[in-house]
Amino acid sequence: MAPIEILDPTVEPRHQPLTYVPRPDSLKGKRVGLVENTKFNSDRLLHRVGEILINEYGAAECKMWRKHNASVPAHAEIIEEAKRSVDVIVAGIGD
Amino acid sequence: MTTTTFASKRHVVADFAQAMDLCYERGWTDGLPVVPPTEPAVGRMLDAVGLQPDAQLAFITNRQVAVTAEKVAINAVMAGCLPEYMPVVVAAVEAIADPLWAYHGPATSTAGAGPLLIVNGPIARRLEINCEDNLFGPGWRSNATIGRAIRLIMRNVIGTLPGLLDRGTLGHPGKYSYVIAENEAESPWIPLHVQRGCAPGESAVTVLAAEAPRQWYNQLSSTPDGVLRTVCDDMRHHNSTNGQPQYVLVLAGEHMRTIANGGWSKADIQKFVFENTQNSIAHIKRMERLAGAVTPQDETAMRPLLAQPDDVLVVAAGGRAGAFSAYIPGWAGGRRSSQAVTKVIQDRRA
Fold it and tell me: Please, which of A50, A69, B294, B300 could form a disulfide with A62 given CB 3.0 to 4.6 Å?
């Protein structure tokens, strides 16, 4: 019997180069953005994180944004406002 | 044949049995044997839908994956599809890549949803997609393989692998294949796809990220509201009480006739379900589905199960005999995170 040839059903994901902004040496005086993912208690968790960053690490202030839902990246308005108004971002999942 | 130019890597094996074994070894199956995707078989799939291999049907942003017609055709062959099923498979791929369906959440979530496909229009009858007895059961090639093709595409092309990017805690059997048609020939109502904006002569597939079907029973009532009170009671207390996903309500023969004989339209059914599936906030809190202490106001404040009446998609389907029907909750992430998407099934051949 002659050999047969089959086609590969899989795909290699496209690679997307990502560049991170250098982490600050200290949070002292920094403005912190918190991105909340809409899941139960994620806002409470991030509020607590914000308090710790202010009280124990000297961050100047915290402000929070809410994503449209947990399954999508932060939308453009969040990104644009964050660029203007904060120095660092904390994004986490609450579940 | 459309073309012989395929971009996919080729694997040479001695025979069909070895090809099936290779697919297992490479992790390309859903656990069942697959049909080896040879070039002629893949070519026939593309011919049937009039697409070039490199045509991009979808782009999954979170995965940075382009889903091409070639990869869809390969996986459709593996699933056991006939070439004439391809237009349905293609439309369903477009649906799960739609921003409203929002692939990443329902495909990866621990809540374990699977894509439920509801096919309407002439193509459902032409392809003999089952809409009657044993609606969700085995026995029909089109039902069994179209949904399987979608699952293999999710696995092999988009990389939604169980235990890695598909983190369903339980999953459900519909994640093998979850395809039904509406019984338009016997339905007294407007078909689902027409209700959702398609023309009556068109064929369409509606895809909802969905949990398993829940069967319910009412052999006592001979009135629409009597029959529907039973399912509303079931729905009101099920798992997604607080999340407001969309739902499918499948009404089989006996219930369909009882409700239609009472003169109710699909819109009447949707309104009744919306109004009769609400829970008090107090109840939701007591059942530990919402955080916080129960306040006096919570006793009278009502939380609708549905965000709006047309979030219950009413479908006439199932056997003629038996006082059973089913409701199917959408993914627990809710309509805020994923919605049913209806795509017209196109014939792209010139």
Answer: A50
